[in-house]
Automatic annotation (TrEMBL):
InterPro entries the record matches: Plipid/glycerol_acylTrfase
GO CC list: membrane
UniProt protein name: Phospholipid/glycerol acyltransferase domain-containing protein
Species the sequence originates in: Channa striata (Snakehead murrel)
Record GO terms (molecular function): acyltransferase activity
Any coiled-coil regions, as ranges: none
Domain Phospholipid/glycerol acyltransferase: 106-229
Top-level taxon of the source organism: Eukaryota
Amino acid sequence: MSDSGNQSCLTGAEDTVSVLVCFFHAWEEWAGLGQEDYLSVLEYLLWVFTPGHCLHCALPHRHPSLPFYTRKNQLREAYCNNLWDGARKTLATLWDGHGAIWHGYEIHGMEKIPDEGPALIVYYHGAIPIDYYYFLANVIIQKGRTCHSVADHFLFKIPGFKLLLEVFSVIHGPQEECVRALRNGHLLGISPGGVREALFSDETYPLLWGKRRGFAQVAIDSQVPVIPMFTQNVREGFRSLGTLRFYRWVYERFRLPIAPVYGGFPVKFRTFLGDPIPYDPNINAAELAEKVQQAVQSLIDQHQQIPGSILRALLERFRTKHKGH
């Protein structure tokens, strides 16, 4: 809908409902959803939040031509087979929908994630790693796999989070547990920068890995490839005030991640997966860590304009090309 179309729509609106309809049509075009797509989304979300999914297992499938038909069918089967698998896929679907609508989320290089077998995914950590949640959702939806993840200890201390972390195979990161997950054939995601990178990196996207080599040793001990990952504009979605000296001092002194985070801006997110770095028995952990850091830095250099700009990232929602293509 053009600006003149929106203006005429609002001019002709005589009540609150009409105004809301006009705003809906404007949002529909901005989000890239046609009328049939939106109706499919509504039907799908209503189905997701309707209790007793397994009661519908024997019902005939309707509207096979709708965009979300396949996804809905997969969820129905997941709930019928396993409650937790159904819950996991439902949350993944909701995250995927949120990413598509709010950030126009794209993922490039998904074919580099193996359909089976282990791999270590190493990524840059945004102020809030919402891009990583979108990535996990895509792994579940596109690959039918659950990617194990390493998270900071403080997440396990948040009341009510324990069950959610268990359902999504989140671990607190001892090397032995990471190696065990990979040797069992799972995918594993880790950010060497962790909380420090989340809070104290900024719109210039510095990697704050220090001398961390544990992740590299895990890859060597497990004899698995390492896949670098970076999301364009992740710092423009959420910003941290951790660059202020006080918050840095509190974290370094007490390990309290209290630096305020602000944002939630609907900027364009594109996740890029680099070429896998294969297992090489002839290099040590320090050399592999340096190699992986260079690979992630290369993705940043190729796909992120420095310094990041919130306004520019918002405008990229309306562009089809991106840096590096």
